[in-house]
Amino acid sequence: MFKMFFDRTEADSLKITDISISDLIGEKNNEYYMEAFEKIESGEKRVFNKSAIFAGPYWYIYRKMVFRGVLMIAFQAIIATMAYATKSPIWITAFLLSFLTFVYSGFYGNKDYYNRVVTLVDESKSIDNKFKGRFYVDKSGVDAYITGCWIVGTVFLYAVIIFL
User: Fold this and answer.
1) Distance (Å, rounded) from C-alpha 5 to C-alpha 142?
2) Which one of 22, 69, 103, 135 is separated from 158 by 20 to 30 angstroms, measured CA to CA?
3) pLDDT at 7 exceeding the cut of 60
4) Distance set, CA 21 to CA 1, 35, 63, 73, 123 (Å)
């Protein structure tokens, strides 16, 4: 997997003509997400995800929905900074309530992921076949490396805020 990350010519040489939802999910928990997506397609609005409620915004980053995860982290960091700077009960309460983003992730994470994957499948239909290999490598599966970087970066940010 890491070889493909660094060797972009190998990604370009993949001969892919169609990309499906299952392809974009990747091998990690494919069966779980296919079942969850079937429930969502049948009309269920919420399909609970234990991993998403535990990891919250980092689950979004892991599943390559980086923008949404970063927004959640930024929201919490701003409120945490205000809580620490003012030491006001209202900001401390707001910071504690900001962890509801984790609850949101648990209840709506699968729906958000489904919407992202369906959008990517639609986008892949308009991409020339010679570029689908790169698209597939860039958009499919999970990204543990970037998630780890965000976790370390967030811990560092909180440490700087607390110890300055």
Assistant:
1) 12
2) 103
3) no
4) 19, 12, 13, 27, 12
- In this structure, which amino acid lies at residue 54? F
Per the document, the length of the chain is 164
Strands in the chain per DSSP E: none
Q: What is the number of domains present in the chain?
A: 1
> Which residues contact residue 64 at a Cβ distance below 8 angstroms, ignoring those fewer than 6 apart?
116, 139, 141, 142, 143
- Ramachandran assignment for 21, one of left (phi > 0), alpha (psi -120 to 50 degrees), beta (any other): alpha
Domain coverage including residue 93 = 2-163
Supply 86's token pair: 């003012």
Give residue for tokens 């999910």: 25
Q: Which residue has the tokens 């972009």?
A: 8
Residues 80, 157: Cα–Cα separation, whole Å:
11
CB 46 within 8 A of CB 107: yes
Predicted model pTM: 0.84
Phi, psi of 26 (to 5 degrees): 90, -175
**Mind listing the pLDDT tens digit for each residue in 13-45?**
556 667 788 888 888 888 999 999 999 999 887
